[in-house]
Amino acid sequence: MSTSGETAPGVAYPAPAGQPSEQPDGAACRGRWERSRRLLAWPAAAAVLFACYLRVSGTVPVNSDGASDALQAWDMLHGNLLLHGWWLGDVSYYTTELPQYTLLELAFGLHSSVVHVAGAMTYTLVVLLAALLAQGKARGTAGTGRALIAAGIMLAPQLGGGASVLLLNPDHVGSTVPVLAAFLILDRGPRRWYVPVSVAALLAWSLVADRVVLLTGVLPLAVVCSARSYLDAVRQRRPWVSQGYLLSLAGAALASGPVAWLVEAALQAKGGYRVAPLAIVTLVSSVTQIPGALYSDAQAVLLLFGGDFLAQPTGLLTGMALVHLAGACLAGCAVWIGARRWLRELDLVSACLVAAVLINGAAYVLLTQFKNVLGAHEIAAVLPFSAVLAGRLLGTRLARPRLRPLVLLVFACYLACLGYAVAQPPVPAADQHLADWLAARHLRSGLAAYWQASGTTLASGGHIQVSPVCATKGRFSAEHWESEASWYDPRLREANFLILGGQAAACNDVTAGLARSAFGPPAGSYHVGPYTVLVWQRNLLTMIR
User: Fold this and answer.
1) What's the rounded Cα separation, in Å, for the pair 238 and 260?
2) DSSP H or E run through 130
3) 11-29 pLDDT tens trace
C-alpha cells in the first residue's frame, strides 16, 4: 500500500483539473508525427527527383537553343534587364526561365551546366505540382495514391529525345509551372475575390513569357467557366447573380491577355527585346500527306510519355518504351472519361485540364507541322495535365485490391527505367570540342550558323564570341534570331573566323566558295571534326550587311 505523496510504480494518475498532463496523448503524438512526415516527404521527394533529373539531363548535349537563353540571362545579370538590342525567338521566356537562369548564373557563372540545372529544376517542379494537383483535397491513402499515379506517369522521361524536350532547353515545359500553380490555387483556394485575382496574375505573368499559355491556361479556364455559368443560369434557371464566382474567373482569364499585352508594350516602349513573329504552318498541303502527319503527331505524344518505341532499336530501350505505354493509356483514358463528363459531373479544375489538353492538342495537329518528333515541345503541357487527370479520375479505380499489385508493378518498372537513365554517362556540350580548339589557338571572335554560334560561346564560358549569321543570295547578314545587335558592330568587336559545316539553320546555305566570294581568300583553313574553320586577317563584321 502506497503512502501519502507516493505513486505506485507503473500506475498513471490523471492530472489535477486545470493542469496539463505530463504524459502526452498517444493519438496526439501520432497525429503530429503524421503531419511532420507529410511535410518532410515533399522536400525529400524534390531533392531526390532533382538529383535524378540532373543526371538524366546530362545525357543530352546543350545546344544553341539553351545557350542563347543562358547568354540572355548573362546580359541581364550584367545590367541589361530589358534585353535592349536583343532579337529573341518566337518565345521570350522573359518572366519564367530567364530569371531562373539569371539566379543560377549568379551562383555558378556562365557555364553549360546552368542549362542542365535549370532543366532539372523546372521538370522537378512540374512533377511535384502535378502530384499536388492530382491529390486534390483527398487525404490519407487515397490522396497519396492519386499523387503517385500522376507523378509515376511523368517519372522517367525517355532517353534521347524525351530528355531533350523535357529536361534541357526552355521550350514550353517551364510555361506549365505557373499554369499548374494557378489551377492549384483554384483547386485548394476558397471562393473569395483574391482567387480570381491570383489566377489572372499568374496567367498574365506566364503569357508575357510564352503565348502557348493562351491555349493551356487562358482559353480553357474562360471556356469552362463561361459554359458552366450559362448552363446553370439558363438551363437550370438559376439567377445570374449566383454565377458571380465563375464569371469572375472567366473574366480574370480573359483579362490576363490584355494585361500581358500591356506589359509587353511597356517593355517595347522602354527599348526592350524584340520577339520574332510566330510561325504557323498549315497541317498538310494535300490529302496524301495526312497519314504521315498523323503518324508524326502520334509519335510526338508517345515521346512525351516515354513510350516512343517506334524510334528505338530492338532491345532494352524498346522494352522500356513499351512499359511507358501503360502511362500513356491511363492518361488517354482519363482524358476520354473527362471529356464525356466535361460539363456534367466533373469538378472545375478537372474540366479545365480536359479543355486544355484538347485545345492544345487540336492546335498542334491543325496549325503546326514538324518533320520529327521533337515538335512534341509544342504540346508539352499535355503530359502533366493528362497525368493529373489520371490521378484525379482513375485513382479510386486503380486502388482496388485486384488492380493494386499491377499498378505497383508498373510503378516499379518506371523506377527501374529512371534508375537506368540515371546510370548513363553524361556527355559534353554539343560544341565543346570546337570551343576548346578555338581557345587553344587564341581565336576569340568569329561567325557561324545558328546551331554552331551560341553553343560554342557558352561552351567556352563566354571567352569566345561566335555570332550567328545568315548566308542567303550570295551575302552574309546578321541573324535576327536569338542574337544581340552589338555582336555585329565592327566598332565593338573584330571577328576573324567563320565556322562551316554541322547542322544547317533555316536561313543558311553556307559553302566555302560563298565565304571566299564574300570575304576574300582566307589566310588559313582548318578541319575540326565535322567543321571547317576559315581564318582571315581582317574584321569580317565590316562586310556583314
Assistant:
1) 34
2) helix 113-135
3) 444 555 545 544 456 666 6
